[in-house]
């Protein structure tokens, strides 16, 4: 934390103390007026992480009866259901590992990471066909044996972070093993990229979009392969990372429309039928801004000239601000999705989109110095702290209206774990983009 200013360090120290306090006494927090400074915004994100998010996840998501994580929770943290899915289980492992790595040394954080990985290794690995199952019950009984590349990307991402946090070489070796499984089982032998949706024995799943590849999956492969390559410097890992970057830039990004689409056939021609055909008529602002900053780190890790990716990233952010951005009473937020050109059609305010947009705006301001990005970042953080987050029980509401009214009371679900929110606070607060 050597990069923190004295003011930020003081604020963060106070925040660490708040983690250890009894969260049941937490009530609405009156935020003092926001300063028009980047330093103030970074400090607030770190304080929010320690005072709101870390206590919520520590107190509510660890399954102390069966192991792993409870991720379908009501507003107050009570359990709605116990099923455990590969993506949220590994995202929680990643989150606790990242916190530990960044100096959050409450022993409960390490314990939460360790028991989560143990449950995952025990109950999700397929001894018969290799790879990782999609979903198990709360107790660990198999519920969905399908294999999805998207889930395996987060296994790699979590295991690399666990290795970094705790120095466990077995975790990095398991990340390598997961990569090798994808190479043998999911890699398309005829075209770039990986198949997305497969049966337990790795055949394309005809009942679950087995004929398509998605930007979403390859975006998170980019994310996972970047960190794997940093740690291994394995030539094959670097080759696949470059392949993911090229796919996303050359196939998924549409320069004439300044945005991306999600669904493709195996040869990377855009999907035009079924659900993905319909989905391709719109664009996801959240995925666009997430790609905007993730591609910067990938290019840097690969040692590529960064200006081309930098320009694409700024174009994607500007497109999202033009069509998806809404403001309400001094706060700003990013809508869910909309057409390639024109106002957003799905104007719900999802938790993960706000986190990714905060990181993207922070990156855009740091790389350009343009005050309009700082202005938007300030409004986005006001939205996150005063509307998206719950000051009574902690955590972020999954979905709000564009006026800031909760459309759902849950703060965690089968797809909503601690990944986007914690990463957003750390990346903005500490200036990290990984």
Give a written overview of the molecule.
With 434 residues, the protein is mostly helical. It folds into two domains: 1-21 and 30-60 and 320-434, Glycosyltransferase, CATH 1.50.10; 81-280, Glycosyltransferase, CATH 1.50.10. Helices cover 53% and strands 10% of the residues. It contains 14 helices and 17 strands. The protein has helices spanning 6-20, 38-60, 86-101, 107-124, 149-166, 169-185, 215-232, 235-252, 274-279, 285-302, 307-323, 351-368, 371-388, 420-430, and strands spanning 72-73, 79-81, 84-85, 135-136, 142-144, 147-148, 197-198, 212-214, 253-254, 259-260, 263-265, 282-284, 325-328, 331-334, 337-339, 349-350, 399-400. The strands form eight sheets. A three-stranded antiparallel beta sheet has the order 3-4-5. A hairpin with a 5-residue loop joins strand 1 and strand 2 (79-81). Residues 1-28 have low confidence and may be disordered.
Task: Write down the CATH topology of the largest domain.
Answer: Glycosyltransferase
Biggest sheet layout: 3 strands, antiparallel
Mean pLDDT: 92
| Multimerization status | single chain
Question: What is the β-strand count?
Answer: 17
Q: What is the topology, as strand order, of the major beta sheet?
A: 3-4-5
Portion of residues within helices: 40-55%
Separate helix tally: 14
């Amino acid at each position: 934390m050597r990069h923190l200013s004295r003011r930020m360090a003081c604020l963060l120290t106070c925040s660490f103390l708040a983690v250890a306090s009894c969260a049941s006494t937490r009530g609405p927090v009156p935020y003092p007026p926001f300063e028009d400074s980047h330093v103030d915004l970074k400090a607030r994100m770190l304080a929010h992480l320690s005072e709101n998010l870390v206590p919520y996840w520590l107190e509510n998501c660890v399954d102390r009866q069966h192991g792993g994580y409870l991720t379908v929770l009501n507003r107050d943290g009570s359990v709605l259901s116990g099923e455990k899915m590969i993506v949220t289980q590994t995202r929680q492992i990643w989150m606790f590992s990242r916190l530990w790595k960044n100096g959050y040394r409450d022993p409960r954080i390490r314990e939460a990471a360790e028991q989560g990985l143990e449950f995952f290794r025990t109950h999700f690995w397929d001894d018969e066909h290799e790879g990782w199952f999609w979903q198990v019950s709360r107790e660990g009984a198999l519920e969905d044996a399908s294999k999805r590349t998207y889930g395996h990307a987060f296994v790699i991402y979590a295991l690399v972070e666990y290795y970094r946090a705790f120095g466990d070489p077995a975790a990095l070796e398991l990340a390598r093993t997961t990569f090798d499984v994808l190479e043998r089982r999911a890699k398309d032998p005829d075209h770039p990229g990986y198949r997305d949706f497969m049966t337990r024995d790795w055949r394309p799943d005809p009942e679950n979009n087995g004929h398509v590849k998605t930007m979403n999956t390859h975006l998170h492969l980019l994310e996972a392969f970047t960190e794997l390559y940093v740690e291994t410097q394995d030539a094959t890992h670097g080759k696949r990372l470059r392949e993911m970057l090229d796919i996303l830039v050359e196939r998924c990004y549409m320069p004439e429309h300044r945005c991306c689409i999600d669904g493709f056939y195996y040869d990377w021609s855009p999907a035009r039928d079924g659900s993905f055909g319909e989905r391709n008529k719109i664009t996801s602002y959240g995925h666009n801004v997430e790609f905007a900053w993730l591609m910067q780190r990938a290019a840097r890790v690969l040692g590529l000239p960064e200006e081309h990716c930098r320009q694409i990233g700024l174009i994607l952010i500007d497109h999202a601000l033009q069509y998806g951005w809404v403001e309400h009473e001094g706060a700003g937020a990013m809508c869910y999705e909309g057409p390639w050109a024109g106002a957003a059609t799905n104007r719900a305010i999802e938790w993960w989109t706000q986190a990714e947009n905060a990181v993207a705006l922070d990156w855009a301001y740091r790389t350009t110095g343009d005050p309009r990005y700082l202005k938007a970042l300030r409004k986005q953080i006001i939205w996150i702290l005063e509307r998206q987050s719950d000051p009574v029980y902690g955590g972020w509401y999954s979905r709000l209206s564009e006026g800031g009214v909760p459309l759902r009371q849950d703060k965690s679900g089968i797809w909503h774990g601690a990944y986007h929110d914690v990463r957003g606070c750390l990346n903005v607060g500490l200036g990290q983009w990984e």
